[in-house]
């Protein structure tokens, strides 16, 4: 009787761990083991199917000797920098304006945020049509009388990456706005009141007091937008399909086409590992600080 | 004090101040309105283009209202447009996406709920480490697992199938749903479960009759987030399926990238709208919960 009871109570003690175990197992396998697997493939000479020989750093050397990869990395820097600056700037501006006790706030917020509900494929399809030089914006402006106006970035290899920035900012700046607005709503109004009584002007209050107080929100926005930028794949595919030529190639599209289209699985795996290391360098310190603060607070 | 000031009788000075405030309001509403127009423009262009006959599109008007409204493009996108060599329209792919999204949302939300419950109310040594392991999965660049997942789906006999996609979405969705539920349950008082335990309720009983009834809002948040993510996914769809088993995003991309013949922009836009409508509807009906899901990963619990 006693033994049976202790068995059942011991079972009850283990039950939570038993129930959480399958999820943990799935995540350990599909996240961590798969990362390791990709890492292993990046050190082999795999082409069409994985082969498990040891080729040392051959694939990484080949990757960094590929001009297409250099284009992809350069594009990632251009795209991420502009995408981050514009989305953060526009998002912050909209959040501050929305926070001024305005009418129709709910409606405006909904309008700024609806692109986030769309698939990047839908966004890419729509903007591809809007920026179509023959029939899109260019033609509208021309017909309004400004006949010399040209907007053919999407077919211009030098400018095409900026069309990806435009569509990306349209899709994601509302997201930055939402996080900043949540941050603004968390700021104690009495701080602002006190500064106003002291005679500080509103722009000064924002520059000196409120925006510095938004630092945690700013950090979240920057980290999450960087993550969106690095994994951007569908947007490029739908908008420009990596072209013209390879002008809008990003690491994500490079990895996909190397692996599934050009039978260079080893190079694809090597590029995936480069992407993973970039994301990890940004995300792990962020998660670490978030979790630590949460435990302390 | 501030209130007392603003309730003074209008003087010349306070009237000119009111004018200043009114001009100030203009600087607030002006940019907001311009932004709203810019944000709505692509949706407007998609809708009007999808309602125009092709000749009108090539004839010129891009942003204006259609002169003749026709649903032909929608009909074609839904049931006639060619995806690869199959001219079936988007309908079968819409069904594929539904068959994928419903089980994936239900499973990942259910598993996330019970994980969140365990990680907050039945904490065990190492629970925080387990949570950290799951959390990194939210930020995994999926390119890093594409090749092994493709191999594994092949070994499991799930390659190219909808159940295979469901498995993938559940596996990576657990990370997000666990995060949602854990952060929500952390704020539920422990007395709730303790009292139930004193009353003799066990692990599952407490989950069903104490925890779940309080968690409707977070269930909604989780379902909406997962629905949007999975419906909009393209990378997994294009990597792990082909032909008739593809989800709608892959089919849409195929329609749009057809290069033969006269480009049917109105069909492209109608197809994009068909792919967008389910998530847009969810957003319109339950936008509040959608925003909570978006900010859950950012704002501390």
Automatic annotation (TrEMBL), chain A:
A single GO cellular-component term from the record reads: plasma membrane
The keyword Transmembrane helix appears for this protein? yes
Instruction: Name the Pfam families on file.
Output: BPD_transp_1
Keyword field contains Endoplasmic reticulum: no
Q: According to the lineage, what is the superkingdom?
A: Bacteria
Compartments, record wording: Cell membrane
InterPro entries in UniProt: ABC_transporter_permease, MetI-like, MetI-like_sf
Q: Which family does it belong to?
A: Belongs to the binding-protein-dependent transport system permease family.
What is the designated name of this protein?
Answer: Sugar ABC transporter permease
